[in-house]
Amino acid sequence: MVIVGAGQAGFQVALSLRMEGYEEPIALICDEPNIPYQRPPLSKGFMVGKQDIEDTTLRPLAFYQSHRIDLVTGASVTEIDRVGRSVRLASGRRFPYDALVLAVGARNRILPVKGAQLDGVCYLRTDAEAVDIQQRLAHARDIVVIGGGFIGLELAASACTLGKSVRVLEVQSRLMPRVVSPILSDFIATFTPARA
Length: 196
Fold this sequence. Notes:
The chain has helices at residues 8-19, 61-66, 127-139, 150-161, 182-189, and strands spanning 2-4, 26-29, 69-72, 77-81, 86-89, 94-96, 100-102, 142-146, 165-169. By secondary structure, the protein is of the alpha/beta class. The protein is elongated, with a radius of gyration of 20 Å.
């Protein structure tokens, strides 16, 4: 079994297989350098200093060893050979599989405007990005959050908790338009920092 992506979904596949008695080799491949961790606390508990970044890990390294899960971190899959039933990493290393799970998650959309790569424009997806934002929040006074979805609103709430002035920008006509009804969007807006 090869699992590409070591977020919550990829980790849970590996764990569930072992809990259900699967005895064959399992490789869990992650392009990030750290052991698998939870992403939800990055915009909440960690951001306001209630949780250490180390506390976001799903399990300690010893867990993977004791459950015979070959955890491969800092490795990008560059090729899937469906005929030969293997994946190849950027390093050239190959992993054969009987079954392949792609649990790669999503990537941030890069803001398509001039200046989007300037210092102070941050994106939140990884633990490293969360650490950077947390350090910047310690010295920032005014925060602009682009995106009125769960993560953007959680980050805005965390910044407010830290006493920052926050403005939320959302391209849609209401907050969280893909996940909640208009009535709930209106209710959430009453508790949201100034938004445009």
